[in-house]
Amino acid sequence: MRKKIVAGNWKMNLTLEAGRILTSEIVNMVADEVKSDVEVIINPPFPHLHPTASLLEGSKVKLGAQNCSEHESGAYTGEVSVAMLQSFGSDYVIIGHSERREYFSEDNAQLAKKVDGALKAGLTPIFCCGETLETRESGAHFEFVCNQLTESLFHLSEADFKKIVVAYEPIWAIGTGVTASTEQAQEMHEKIRTHLKSKYGSAADSCSLLYGGSCKPTNAKELFACADVDGGLIGGASLKSRDFVDIVKSF
Ligand code: PEP
Asked: Does ligand 1 have an atom closer than 6 angstroms to the CB of 238?
């Protein structure tokens, strides 16, 4: 049985106070309304992590970060290490979000190092992959996404691979209001799983594959009903407690 997961990516939004309010609302709604075994994760900006960890104490909502350095420690001004994230109470870390790849030039080799560092620190990487509209329209989208996975994950041992969560986020669907159809989502998730199986065999059957890209309460149910979609990575809708928790309840 694969873990069902809904993770919120707050990106660079919310002051500390606004973040506290949102976290408390999510914690209360999840406690009152969520009866399923879905793993709920919030990924606030770095400065929120420590205070958010205190608010999550005793709750089943887990904490994640949006990025990490590939370096262990040292003279890397402005960076945050995996050991710091772990000490702030993070369980998860998003690695390779398309905004990091596009605006901060993160490439597959660098992301492989981040994955290694996160695993070493005991964090679960939520590894993001996904293609641009141009790549999809050229027909190279499956090859492109599989290559992202090969170059950043296929060096892992089977034991480490088993600790990974993968999020497929078509770039053309992120923050655009355009969601992948259930057919497009399932087709890509199936390809991803088949590709992971080519390297890791049946271990790929236990890997949670999340969909991300304009997921909202009105489309989450049909997306989560797809055979190879095990949950969602949620951007915009994770900033509204009602919407986020309604997505969590869409399984
Ligand atoms: C994201 O950036 O991870 C994301 C899925 O964003 P949105 O839900 O806003 O499309």
From this structure: no
Q: Nearest 5°: phi and psi at 126?
A: -105, 95
The reply to whether ligand 1 has any atom less than 6 angstroms from the CB of 236 is: yes
* Topology of the domain comprising 5-248: TIM Barrel (3.20.20)
What's the distance, Cα to Cα, between the start and end of the chain in Å?
14
Q: How confident is the model at residue 32 (pLDDT cuts 50, 70, 90)?
A: very high
pLDDT digits (tens, 9 = 90+) for 119-157: 999 999 999 999 999 999 999 999 999 999 999 999 999
Long-range contacts of 70-79 (CB under 8 A, 24+ apart): 70/110, 70/113, 70/114, 70/117, 71/117, 72/117
Ligand 1 atom nearest 216 alpha carbon: 8
pLDDT for the residue numbered 221:
98
Please give the number of the atom of ligand 1 that sits closest to the Cα of 99: 2
For residue 76, how far is its CA from the centre of ligand 1 (angstroms)?
A: 28
Catalytic-residue membership of 169: yes
Active site residue 97: yes
- The pTM is what? 0.98
* Ligand 1: nearest atom to the Cα of 11: 2
Q: Where are the domains of the chain?
A: 5-248
